[in-house]
Amino acid sequence: KASRPLAKLPITFMSSTGGIATPATAITDADGVAMTTWTMPVRAGTATLVASSGTTSLQVTTGVRAATAARLNKLAGDAQQGVEGELLQDFVRVTVTDAYGNPIEGRAVAFVVTAGGGAVTVASVTTAADGGAFAEWRVGERATTNMLEVRTPGLPPVTFTAISRALAGTFAVTGSMSTARYWHTATLLRDGRVLVAGGSSLVEADGALAAAELYDPATGSFSPTANTMTVARSGHSATLLADGRVLIAGGIDNGVRSSSADLFDPATNAFVPTGNLLDAQDVQQGTLLPSGEVLLTGGWTGRQARAELYDPATGMFRYTGFYIDSTLAFDYHGLWTIPATPLPNGRVLIASSPRAQIYDPATGTFAPTSATDDHTGGTATLLMNGTVLLTGGGSTNDFGYYAKSELYDPATSLFLPAESMRYGRVSHTATRLASGKVLIAGGMQGYGSGASAAELYDVTGMRWTSVGSMKFPRAAHRATLLQDGRVLITGGYLNSAEIYTERP
Q1: Per-residue pLDDT tens for 461-490?
Q2: Does residue 460 sit in helix, strand or coil?
Q3: Vertex 404: Cα angle to 402 and 410 (nearest 5)
C-alpha cells in the first residue's frame, strides 16, 4: 500500500551540540513537511540535529568551520624579567581565533621587536591547528624595558613587555689563537702577557701540541713564542716561578705520558729543557710554595702518581710525602684534574674524594681533613676571607656532574655546604675577580657537550647570580685574570678567545 504524507503531525527539533533550532517544534503541512531554521553552534567541529515525532526520529550531521579571524589573543610570555642579552625563560605565545574562540589554522603571524634592541628566534610563522604561534625572545644587551609586537593582517596587534636587568659583567670576543686548543695551559706573566701552551687540537686528532703563543692585552692579539716546547703536551701543568719563568711539566700525547719538563723565559720568549719528573704523568696540578719550590699533585701514570717537588735552584724533581689515600679520586683513570689550592698559611688543600688532604710544606707530609664531596674535574678557589669555594665536578659518580658547592674553612678544617650553582659542571673555570666575586664559566653540562653559561658567586651574600653567557660554548678551556682585572678565556675545542669585563 503506497505511503501518503501525514499532515498536522508535531515534529520536535533538537540540536545536540549547542546549536539552536527555531522553531523548536513545527507542524507538518499537507505535504507532510515541517521546517525549522538551524543556527550552528559556536564551536567548530561536528554538529547534529535530531528531528523526532513520537518514537520515530531522524538525525542530520554536518561539519562546522571556524568563522573569519576576529581576535589575536595573548597566551603566555608577557611581563617577564630577564638578564640583558639572554633568552627569556618563557616563550611568547599567541592564538588567533574567530569571535567565538575557535582556532584559526594557517594564519600568518609576525613577531616584531619594537623597543629594547632584542631579537626573536623566528620573525614570522603560520598558526598551528590550535590557532597558536610562538617564538623565543632574547632581550637587548642593556638594562631597559623591552617591547615586542605580534601582528596578523586585519587585526589589532598585541604588545608584550619584558624588563632586562643589568649584568655584573660582559663578554666580548678578542683576537684568535693560531689553532684550536683544549686541555692547554694559560699563565699570566709578570709583564702582563699570557703564555698559552700545548693542549690538544681538533686539527691534530688525538695528538697534542708542542706550539705555544703569547697574548698581549694591549693589542688583543696572539703571537707565537720563539720556539716550541721540547715535546707535545696536553693535560700538563704550568706554574709561574718566583723569578718570573714558567715551569711546564708532564702531559700526554697520543696516549703516551711524558716525564719531561721545560722552563719558559719571558725575556727570550723561548723554552729550554729542565730536569725530568720522576713519574711520567698528566692531569697533575702545580702549586708554587712559599719556599719557591713547586708542588705537583694529582698526577696520573696509569695509577696515582706520587706527589713531587721541583726545585728551581737545582732544576730537579724529588718525591715528597705519601698521600693519605692511595687514590685521590677513587679510580677514575686520571681523566680529570684534582683541584689544589694554596692556603694563606702556606699549606695546600687537595680537594679530592672521599676525603680532602692538606699538604704541609714544613714537614713534607699530607694530613686528612673532614669528608667532602667528589669535586674531581671541578674547581677550588681561594676567597678573600681565606675560605675556599669548591664547585662542580663529581666525575666519578653515576648521577651526572654536580651543581653543588662547598666552602672549606682552614680554621676549622671543615667543609660546609654552599648554595648550588644553576648547572652541574665539570671541566669549567673559576676566577676570583677584583671585586672578590668568583666567575664560573662554561664546562661540560652533559656528556661531551660544552656550555656557554656563566655565573657569579658573591661571597658577601653567599649566593649565585647569572652573568649571561660567553660568546661560544666551551669546556676544557682556560680563564686567566689579567693585570687590569679583566679575564681572558681561551680555547675549549676552539681557537677563539674572549674577554670578560666586570662592571663597577
Answers
A1: 889 988 878 999 999 999 999 999 999 999
A2: coil
A3: 120
